[in-house]
Amino acid sequence: MAKENSFDVVSQVDFPEVKNAISAALKEIKTRYDFKGSKSDISLDKEEIVLVSDDDYKMDQLKDVLIGKLIKRGVPVKNLDYGKTEGASGGTVRQRAKLVQGIGKEDAKKINTLIKNSGVKVKSQIQDDQIRVTGKSRDDLQQIMAAIREADLSVDVQFMNFR
């Protein structure tokens, strides 16, 4: 009997890397001239990044610095879900960015449809917030991986447990 090969499609965020990116962004903000005397701050509150700044313009600059540091650390910025900007104490503005973990139902359905329409002989099943793909040939599984990478999804996906 032929051995079944499989892999899992997941969407995860590495929180230690997020903390390191926030530390690096805060260090840069303290040394930048355009943030001199500013009340800008970035903090991690459970699974949310909280951005505080003087005004909307500085908030955009703060987001740019943070995104640059997250990309440098290999954290997927597609998994950031920004809330609306709200007023905070002391005349500042605050914005929360939720770190999305796991594949949502819409993206899972999109991935399953993509796999079925590819014509490759593999099976896929949704398991909570991840998808398990099984097939006889490793080449078929790698074709599916390439197709999923090309798909336009709302979150960044990784492939785990390839065996």
Automatic annotation (TrEMBL):
The keyword Nucleotide-binding applies. Keywords: Nucleotide-binding. GO terms for molecular function: nucleotide binding. The keyword Cell membrane does not apply. GO terms for cellular component: cytosol. InterPro entries: UPF0234-like_C, UPF0234_N, YajQ-like_sf, YajQ/Smlt4090-like. Gene3D superfamilies: 3.30.70.860, YajQ-like, domain 2. PANTHER family: UPF0234 PROTEIN YAJQ (PTHR30476:SF0). Nucleotide-binding protein. NCBIfam families: PRK05412.1. Belongs to the YajQ family. This is Nucleotide-binding protein FZC78_14815. It comes from Rossellomorea vietnamensis.
